[in-house]
Here is the input.
Amino acid sequence: MTSSLLALSPLNNWPERSDTPLLISGPCSVESEKQYIQTAVALAKTSKVHLLRGGIWKPRTRPNAFEGVGEKGLEWMVNARKECGLPVMTEVANAEHVEKCLKHELDALWIGARTTVNPFSVQEIADALKGVDIPVFVKNPVNPDLQLWIGALERIQQAGINRIAAIHRGFSHFGDSIYRNKPTWEIPIALRTAYPNITLICDPSHICGRRDLLQSVAQKAMDLGYDGWMIESHLDPDNALSDAAQQVTPEVLIEMLASIHIRQAQSDDIAFVHELQTLRSRIDKVDEEIIQLLGKRMRITEELGRFKKDESVTIFQIDRWKEILETRTMLAEQLGLSKEFILKYLEQLHKESIRTQTRVMNKRD
Ligand code: PEP
Ligand code: MN
Here is the structure.
């Protein structure tokens, strides 16, 4: 199935900005009119923020937590916009939210991770957006399912929305992790690979869940060529009514982003381009050698399969597999390769080797 997302053009000119990364900031939740306007003014003063966020309907994991101020917050957001001149956006989870936001003429909307998982909800939002021209940001679903994320983006696009962006906010997991939501970078990278024109924004706040990790995640996003960030900011983070541990003051936000190194996707420098090509052709050659060697290894595996078949010996030999794991990881570590990487490689190799031997053994002579 070819996706209409292939035809997307980047959000680049919205909202108007130079070639700096798009920065969306504001508190996790709109708490009071005063809090929101003061935050908006502080963020606008930095001249680095393009778009103000603020949640008014808050999806909370457990009951009895602060669930947002609701519709009255929309008026406060509009007043903040008047006061500081920045466009405002909030999270919508159903058609009623969309209608209320449109009535108050909000500038943009986002769909939260807990909503993206549900095609019924996303379709309801898409239907409410038909015939409307408003930018929509779609957060990744809480579970690491690329197709579900793509499906949500497609539903919004098929409602006629052209200014669409994807926000990467990490994925739920069970067990220990330094992150609140694991970044699993390969998923947004796969999204970008499939749809090169999609605007991709990183949300370090919800990935990290804590302040001290924000900078490294924000930097990684730039290293991977993301278009911008959504980062929560609060005047008094420790006393925020939601997501206190991950919020930073506007000053800390700007200080943190100032230390981020922004890389360009390309360079016109002739010497650089030449050196890049030289290095790439060396890599091409090594990749070819690796593939040749893998082919050679698999041919030996086939021979091994025939040999075991003749002797009626089982394919899987636990001692041999343990020996392979031990000797190869030891060598790999001596060469500075990570254990995680080599184990993944060996697992794939072993799987393919078993598949090959199974085919040989079951072949009728
Ligand atoms: C939020 O942005 O405050 C929020 C609830 O985000 P997410 O959907 O990523 O959990
Ligand atoms: Mn939040």
Notes: The longest strand covers residues 22-26. The first helix runs from residue 33 to 45.
